[in-house]
Amino acid sequence: MTATATEPSRGVATQDDRVATRPLAARLLSRPEVGSLIAAIVIFLLFMAVAEPFRNVANVGTILYGASTIGIMAVPVALLMIGGEFDLSAGVAVTTSGLSASLLAWNFGLNVWVGILLALAVSVAIGAFNGWLLLKTGLPSFLVTLGTFFILQGVNLGVTRLLTGNVASADISDMDGFASAQNIFGSEVTLGPVTLKITVLYWVLLTVIAAYVLLRTRAGNWVFAVGGDAAAARAVGVPVRATKIGLFVAVGFCAWLSGMHLLFQFNTVQSGEGVGKEFIFIIAAVIGGCLLTGGYGSVVGASLGALIFGMTQLGINYAGWNPDWFRTFLGVMLLLATLVNMYVKRRADLR
């Protein structure tokens, strides 16, 4: 995977290229997800020791479900951060997707699947708009997506109240197509004592696909290149514009997938849902090894960061601790993860 002069479109060498020829131990310690892996093991052992319900195999499904609802969005957010950008609208975009499918189908009497497809178009359009506006204006993605965040938050609340007279969408469980759609987006499977939600499967598939694309394809090299130095990447033939817009569209697609689960898990969507979750997605990505400066990170690490959240959220309750401390945990983990990521990157660059 080392970039050469005969492959200008692959851009500059990525983090994976720079460690490819080092000894195995050095390569493992240079991986951006090493910190999140160690943290996940420590947290797992901690709650295994202090929380008896955490040791119950039947609760594995609950822990993985909590992790998967974060991980589905943490993976594309990590890709976007590696590409050097942020999306602060990711949390409310999930709600927008669920509301779009529900309100369009209910208000116009459509088959639920038509609402689902229209919601996909809306979600992808939001992502494409974020990317287009970023490149058109040259504004930081922080400001662009912060604006989108407030726009979507207002639209979610205003349109829902206008159409339903309430702050939640109507129950669509009796509409045509609901049962088949629920099998795709809200089903579960029981394996012995463990019940796994369909989101766990989607989370694993997204992680595998994203990791393969990032580390084994030319498009993955482009992501690292535009995040490391967009001007240099453009100079060697990397399609910077298409890459950045594509990353925002990926966030939009996963927001649609997450929004469909939200809708078909509960049959209705609260219009105020999703506010604040964008920070959880970003923190999961940072815990997983992504730097805020771009050009470095791991989607596997982001999924480990989501797993850490899943274990911690339930572990605190299982241990009988005050859940108010969870926000403190988020802040501490963000600071520690940033320091560890910088240390690991420095060591990787020196070797």
Automatic annotation (TrEMBL):
Q: Which domain of life is it from?
A: Bacteria
- Ranges in a coiled coil: none
InterPro entries under this entry?
Answer: ABC_transp_permease
Which keywords does this chain's UniProt record carry? Cell inner membrane, Cell membrane, Membrane, Sugar transport, Transmembrane, Transmembrane helix, Transport
Q: Single GO cellular component annotation?
A: plasma membrane
Q: Looking at the keywords, is Lipid biosynthesis present? A: no
For membrane topology, the record states: Multi-pass membrane protein
Any Pfam family matching the protein:
BPD_transp_2
Spell out the molecular function terms from Gene Ontology: transmembrane transporter activity
Subcellular compartments = Cell membrane
Instruction: Please list every transmembrane segment annotated in the UniProt record, as residue ranges.
Output: 34-51, 63-81, 88-106, 112-135, 142-163, 194-215, 246-267, 279-305, 325-344
Q: What does this protein do?
A: Part of the binding-protein-dependent transport system for D-xylose. Probably responsible for the translocation of the substrate across the membrane.
What PANTHER family does this protein's entry cite? ABC TRANSPORTER PERMEASE PROTEIN YPHD-RELATED-RELATED (PTHR32196), XYLOSE TRANSPORT SYSTEM PERMEASE PROTEIN XYLH (PTHR32196:SF32)
Tell me what this protein is called. Answer: Xylose transport system permease protein XylH
* Organism per entry: Micromonospora globispora
Q: What is the lineage of its organism?
A: Bacteria, Bacillati, Actinomycetota, Actinomycetes, Micromonosporales
